[in-house]
Specification:
Layout lengths: L1 E5 L4 H12 L3 E6 L14 E4 L5 H11 L3 E4 L6 H6 L1 H22 L1
Parallel strand pairs: 1-2, 1-4, 2-3
Helix pairs in contact: 2-4
Amino acid sequence: MTVLVTGGAGYIGSHMVWELLDAGESVVVLDRLSTGFEWAVAPEAKLVVGDVADRELVGRIIRENKVDAIIHFAGSIVVPESVADPLGYYENNTCKTRTLIETAVREG
């Protein structure tokens, strides 16, 4: 099975990537590296730098890698930032998640 892990260069996402690889799954990581790190991604995983709201990119990843499942960790989590910029957090955590889901559904 091939799993797309969004936010897979962050702390929680990168640990999920390791667990999936240990279970014998193929993993593609999509991360814009705004808070994650390239070095945190397991070398056995394929890293794609980009945004979950990029419909063309996500669609291409799903098609080219024959993605079977998506685990979504790409989200903003800093509480003081969320208070200072609630609309930015809404855009990143809600709107972009919806776009990711719509793209996944479209791609089958």
